[in-house]
Amino acid sequence: MTEIKKANGIILRKLDFHESSKIVHIFSDDFGKISVLIKGAKSGKSSIGKIIDILNSISFVYYKKSTCELQVLTEAELNEHFTGIRSDFDSMIYATAILELIERLIPPEEVHKRLFNGTMRILTLMSNNPNSSSLYFLKFLHFFLDEIGYKLELENCISCGETLENSRKVGFNVAKGFVCQKCSSNELINFTMEMEQFKKLQCSIAKKNECQLTDVQIIKFIELFEKYLTYHIEDFSGIKSLKLIRK
Fold first, then answer.
1. Annotated domain spans of the chain
2. 6, 43, 51, 96: which could join 78 in a potential S-S bond, CB 3.0 to 4.6 Å?
3. What whole-number percentage of the chain has pLDDT above 90?
4. Distance between CA 226 and CA 217 in Å, rounded?
């Protein structure tokens, strides 16, 4: 049985298919991550082919066959090009890292409406404020961990449950997350920070702007969050896109 479906989506990846077509991976609002075939997309006359680019937000129509993994896209309209991201190298890298996480770690056709809306919001913020792209990526990474079931607790010690703000220092364990100074003596600690620095992290993640982290601190926390994710997900060795920034 074939059904006509309409959705909004973010283009994650595109591949050439035969002489004139493309296969496109899309993260959609109502149907999760799907793969579609766009016939004739490589033709200069194709109106759809012109807007099918990685990172673009589109509205689209496709024919869904339950017996097929690859669906056929028939209509598409551009919603957002995220020009501000594309004009800044670092912003484009961080945006690509967001797409990579969704592409690699979200199962096909698993609906994540909140993740879709959060991704659109972060990409919009990045596009409007490209100089803050690393901070927005840190916020997204924390949000993403929560959405896929690996939330990083920022309020209470993961070992004893005490409020972390009552501790003079905070430790980070890649297997568990943040622990208070007292519990740090009984855990393998990969990174230790003063409470002032940890409060800035809490504040930044909580969508506040009065206590932002420095670029060095942001990058360090991204690395810690990434190590935490790598520890918990088998066969995930890290975010490949970020290697371009780290060189």
1. 2-81
2. 51
3. 78
4. 14
Kindly indicate the confidence band of residue 210, based on its pLDDT and cuts at 50, 70 and 90. low
Give pLDDT tens digits for 86-100.
999 999 999 999 999
Asked whether the whole model's pTM tops 0.90, one would answer yes
CA distance 119 to 113: 10
pLDDT tens profile 68-84: 778 889 999 999 999 99
- Give Rg (Cα) of the chain: 20
Query: What is the fold of 2-81?
Result: OB fold (Dihydrolipoamide Acetyltransferase, E2P) (2.40.50)
